[in-house]
Design goal:
By secondary structure, the chain is an alpha+beta fold. It is built from seven helices and ten strands. The N and C termini lie far apart (51 Å).
Length: 219
Amino acid sequence: MSEIATAMSPSMPRINEPAPDFEAKSTHGMLKLSDFKGRWVVLFSHPADFTPVCSTEFIEFAKRAEEFEKRDVQLIGLSVDSIPAHIAWIRNIEEHFDVKIGFPVIADLDTKVAQQFGLIHPAASETATVRAVFVIDPKGIIRALIYYPMSLGRNIDEILRAIDGLQTADTNACSTPANWQPGDQVIVPPPQTTADAEKRSLQSEYDVTDWYFAKRTLS
């Protein structure tokens, strides 16, 4: 990429950085991201209303809404479609698939929010937002982000698993291994001194494989 193209590319928020605040029209009225501080937020974008893959995603988000609520997560959808288009599409989904879309959907006609969050990828589309998921913690910090191509629908189980893992890590000062599910053992942070490394094998509360690799079961 040339220096000029690099300079013109919009910045993309990164993990552990504050999520850009915004005020935008939504199907629930004017909405500010900062209004949700104190709660977890899943901000997710979709390419366009009245498209089949996006419809399946909205159906699944709606079906799993109670599971997000149990985790104190606010769902917020977004695309560059208008409020009337969002409303018509939501009503169509509710009519045909017997689900209730209870979360707000942002109408980002001027793409201001999309630009702040790096949701317009010209190689995919000059105007439509890509499929992206931003997991934002109660302090307004981006903790995870996932991007998908236009052709690939999201896995809602994985989004819930990511939230469970983040919340578990925050509560228990640990990490979670590959394919972790709630109830599985978690990873113990590795020792930071040689003395602690020598002690690690003696710590009976841990399942120790080696000084740097240990798991424990959460009570």
